Amino acid sequence: MKIKSIHIENFRGYKDRFFEFKDKMNLIVGNNASGKTSLLEALYFCMCGKSFKGRDIDAINFDSFYFKLEMLSEVDDIEYNLFCYVDRNSDKRIMINGKKINRLSELISIFKFVFFDPDTTELIKRQPKLRRRFLDMEVTKLYPYMTKVYSEYQKALLSRNAFLKSYDKKDIIDLYDTQISQLGFLIFQKRQEIINKLSIEAQKVFSYVFENKSMLELKYMPSIVASDKEEYYKEMKKSIDRDFSFGYTTKGVHRDDFEILIDKKSAINFASEGQIKLAAISVVLATSLLYPEPVLILDDVFSELDKFKIRNLVKFISQYQSFVTSAEDLRAFEREGILEIGSANVIFLEKNL
Ligand SMILES: Nc1ncnc2c1ncn2[C@@H]1O[C@H](COP(=O)(O)OP(=O)(O)OP(=O)(O)O)[C@@H](O)[C@H]1O
Ligand SMILES: [Mg+2]
């Protein structure tokens, strides 16, 4: 896919701006608070129907009642005109080529993009919930029909947990168990598949971009391991007494996690800050290898990296259309002959948006 332009109205610090983009690297340069992240957030909003930063209305310019975004893009030779409108009364409209969409998941099936921001390192450092969200996002990007499976699983899980708290009838709960284990097994399989692919690709990025001899691996840590849904069901049943005494479902895909290992050791426990950042970038960039023509949205990806890593990263990024922010003007490195960004579209942002 390719993003051609965006028209931004009253979004964050932007009042009214139009940006045109190139098919290669779009390097967004500007001082702190000049609107670099906000521009990426606007693109992200168009492709996901929500922000990576929090509530929709927080993105409305302080002096305005609404924001509007209009993004022109092309996916598989089809033009998409994406329109978003959000106002302070929580009226939210998203339209593709003039037609209102009913579900945000419609966007996932069209726009394939890879997103990195400084918080992505939390993927390694923080709670399993973040890693599950990351993984499930990749599963749904590759298999959009899985969105429904996740929401049905969530619904069934809530009903089962409510039942566990109020009753002690093991035969009735079987209705939920059958459904949960079928949906759960499907999610388990898809996660396993994505982890296996990502593990191989992340290692490639890690060693190519970062000239790193260390080994990077992703290891799935499911709470139930099974080779078919019947086995998944049986495994789930083993913890039924525990589930009743705790009042919630103690095993299932909602308790899964994955680990990032560097040279077979858990990154969370042993890696340095720099290694964690490199590993997180590698895992995220690895997702770009899952789709034919993704767009890369990378916020502040170069900071803390030495100039040789930046050079390799720029080379990798240049294979795709990308939107990359930097508080530093990388052309200084170009003058030193370290990297080539000649074909990039450099967008300078002034403080006044
Ligand atoms: N709803 C809003 N209305 C108006 N301004 C806002 C709103 N939300 C955030 N801002 C402001 O927008 C400005 C641009 O923020 P942004 O995060 O895009 O900057 P940046 O260029 O990425 O900076 P940095 O280099 O520090 O990451 C900030 O000064 C911020 O306070
Ligand atoms: Mg920023």
TrEMBL record:
InterPro entries named among the record's database cross-references: DNA-binding_RecF, DNA-binding_RecF_CS, P-loop_NTPase, RecF/RecN/SMC_N, RecF_2
NCBIfam families to which the protein is assigned, alphabetical: recf
Similarity comment text for this entry: Belongs to the RecF family.
Domain RecF/RecN/SMC N-terminal: 3-326
Top-level lineage group: Bacteria
Task performed by this protein: The RecF protein is involved in DNA metabolism; it is required for DNA replication and normal SOS inducibility. RecF binds preferentially to single-stranded, linear DNA. It also seems to bind ATP.
Subcellular location: Cytoplasm
Protein name in UniProt: DNA replication and repair protein RecF
Sites where the protein binds ATP: G30, N31, N32, A33, S34, G35, K36, T37
Gene3D superfamilies named in the record: P-loop containing nucleotide triphosphate hydrolases, RecF/RecN/SMC, N-terminal domain
Keyword DNA-binding: yes
Main location per the UniProt record: cytoplasm
Species this protein is from: Caldicellulosiruptor diazotrophicus
Keywords: ATP-binding, Cytoplasm, DNA damage, DNA repair, DNA replication, DNA-binding, Nucleotide-binding, SOS response
